UniProtKB/TrEMBL annotation:
This is PadR family transcriptional regulator. InterPro entries: Metal_resp_DNA-bind_regulator, Tscrpt_reg_PadR_N, WH-like_DNA-bd_sf, WH_DNA-bd_sf. Residues 21-91 form the Transcription regulator PadR N-terminal domain. Coiled coil: none annotated. Pfam families: PadR. SUPFAM superfamilies: Winged helix' DNA-binding domain.
């Protein structure tokens, strides 16, 4: 992607990353590196340096909760789980996203004619 395209993609990802994290956690609890890898594999790349502060803010806001799990012979991992408040945020986001993305799609289709 070119530089302007990269900038646009980065800004869009930043705006939706929180809701992508909630959507992933709605499927199953995950630890931080697992979340980062999943986001990266989907092209929604999130460096650990940006993901962990986001997760901390989400925890403070009540969208996620955490627990520590200790596996024998391995480091303890902090797992993140979505809360009822987080699921409600995701529901609201989905409605807004569907409305906005539909409008943007229509505008882009009109422009390409």
């Amino acid at each position: 992607m070119d530089e302007p395209g990269d900038r646009i993609a980065t800004n869009l990802r930043k705006g939706v990353l929180e809701f992508c994290v909630i959507a992933l956690l709605a499927r199953r609890d995950m630890y931080g590196l697992e979340l980062a890898n999943e986001l990266t594999s989907r092209g929604l790349s999130a460096s650990e340096g940006s993901l962990y502060p986001l997760l901390a803010r989400m925890r403070e806001a009540g969208a996620v909760e955490t627990r520590w799990e200790h596996a024998e012979g391995a480091r303890a991992r902090r797992y993140y789980a979505v809360t009822a408040a987080g699921l409600e945020q995701l529901r609201v986001f989905a409605g807004v996203w569907n409305g906005i993305s539909g409008q943007v799609d229509r505008l882009l289709e009109e422009e390409s004619r």
